[in-house]
């Protein structure tokens, strides 16, 4: 007798939600639906979600944490193995530090490939330490569309819908469903478009979720082959601005950028555009228009970060929600039950590079139920 399928609603179609659905779809007993307003085949210019605007490479971020180290390692290896598909590319990289003693805190050197310390004569002025290694990058639009195509072929259902509460998400899956909350955040700018994330989703309402505003420039520069980033270097960035150059498989390059916490502004700041271009061309003169580079776009995305770090855990939520302001989901009387929710949100700038590791952990949580 065929085992009864377990209905699972994945709320959110960004890189985290798609990766979770992909991993769960390997188990035939899981019946998966992805519910989101923004989908990979459209809304790739929507600022209501972060995935289309990401750098989408693997890059060292923050200090060592055992849990995220596991996520990062699994994700890096998965993406590295995808290079033959053409969706992901090997990416020679350099990271510059102001502090020459920073080498002692490099926790990620065994994740990347070909790690080495650069000789001092190869460093720009004012840089105390240079590290070289090979990492990976992808292009968000292509990668997200590929993920959806793969999921559809696996029988995953996509429901294009804005959901206002965890209760409404549960109703879409039926009486025995579990919900995986892989939403981002919501901004006042996006609220008019009914984009609801973990900060305002009824039943979650996590006020620890906040935006980190990222402004970037995309250029066409297939002749630029090396990723360069600067860490804590006063010569190249302020406390809210960062310098990075990330080539992509299609010949485009993303130039950054900003890390502006609690900044909800989704408009392009053209003073920042100038500073980004000046910093990046100082590091890599081949990015100058005179060398054949073409500017394609200036972009702003809001990274969905969380105070205290990402949230990946199981929670039991009693339904119906006690609020009298829960939007109707058209199912008549609201159901009373204990809903199992698995949260997976708050990854800030590390969504792509945490994605497959997080998906694996979520799959373990689902299997434990």
Automatic annotation (TrEMBL):
Q: Tell me which residues make up the FAD dependent oxidoreductase domain.
A: 8-365
Q: Does the keyword Thylakoid apply?
A: no
The record's annotation in Pfam families points to: DAO
Q: SUPFAM superfamilies given for it?
A: FAD-linked reductases, C-terminal domain (SSF54373), Nucleotide-binding domain (SSF51971)
Alphabetically, the GO molecular function entries are: D-amino-acid oxidase activity; FAD binding
What GO terms fall under cellular component here?
cytoplasm
| Record-linked InterPro entries | DAO, FAD-dep_OxRdtase
Q: Where does FAD bind?
A: 163, 183
Task: State the UniProt keywords alphabetically.
Answer: FAD, Flavoprotein, Oxidoreductase
Which cofactors does the annotated protein need, by name? FAD
Which positions bind D-dopa? 244, 303
The UniProt family comment states:
Belongs to the DAMOX/DASOX family.
Under which name does UniProt file this protein? FAD dependent oxidoreductase
Give the classification, highest ranks.
Eukaryota, Fungi, Dikarya, Basidiomycota, Agaricomycotina
């Amino acid at each position: 007798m065929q085992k009864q399928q377990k209905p699972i609603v994945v709320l959110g179609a960004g890189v985290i939600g798609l990766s979770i659905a992909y991993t769960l779809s390997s188990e035939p007993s899981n019946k998966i639906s992805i519910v989101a307003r923004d989908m990979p085949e459209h809304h790739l210019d929507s600022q209501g979600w972060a995935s289309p605007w990401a750098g989408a490479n693997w890059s060292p971020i923050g200090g060592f944490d055992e849990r995220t180290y596991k996520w990062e390692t699994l994700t890096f290896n998965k993406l590295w193995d995808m290079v033959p598909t053409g969706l992901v590319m090997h990416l020679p990289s350099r990271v510059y530090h102001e502090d020459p003693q920073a080498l002692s805190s490099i926790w990620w050197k065994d994740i990347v490939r070909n790690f080495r310390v650069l000789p001092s004569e190869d460093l720009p002025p004012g840089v105390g330490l240079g590290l070289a290694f090979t990492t990976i990058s992808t292009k968000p639009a292509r990668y997200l569309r590929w993920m959806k195509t793969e999921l559809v072929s696996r029988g995953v259902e996509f429901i294009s819908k804005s959901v206002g509460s965890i209760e409404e998400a549960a109703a879409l899956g039926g009486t025995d469903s579990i919900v995986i909350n892989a939403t981002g955040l919501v901004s006042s700018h996006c609220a008019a478009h009914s984009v609801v994330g973990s900060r305002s989703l009824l039943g979650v309402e996590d006020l620890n979720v906040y935006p980190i505003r990222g402004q970037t420039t995309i250029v066409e520069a297939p002749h630029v082959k090396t990723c360069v980033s600067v860490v804590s270097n006063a010569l190249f960035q302020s406390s809210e601005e960062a310098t990075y150059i990330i080539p992509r498989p299609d010949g485009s390059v993303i130039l950054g950028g900003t890390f502006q916490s609690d900044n909800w502004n989704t408009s392009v700041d053209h003073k920042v555009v100038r500073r980004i271009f000046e910093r990046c061309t100082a590091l890599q003169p081949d990015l100058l228009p005179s060398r054949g580079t073409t500017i394609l776009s200036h972009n702003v995305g809001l990274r969905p970060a969380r105070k205290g770090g990402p949230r990946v855990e199981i929670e039991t939520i009693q339904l119906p929600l006690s609020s009298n302001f829960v939007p109707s989901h058209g199912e008549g009387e609201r159901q009373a039950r204990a809903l199992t929710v698995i949260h997976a949100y708050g990854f800030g700038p590390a969504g792509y590079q945490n994605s497959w590791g997080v998906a694996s952990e979520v799959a373990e949580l689902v299997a434990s139920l």
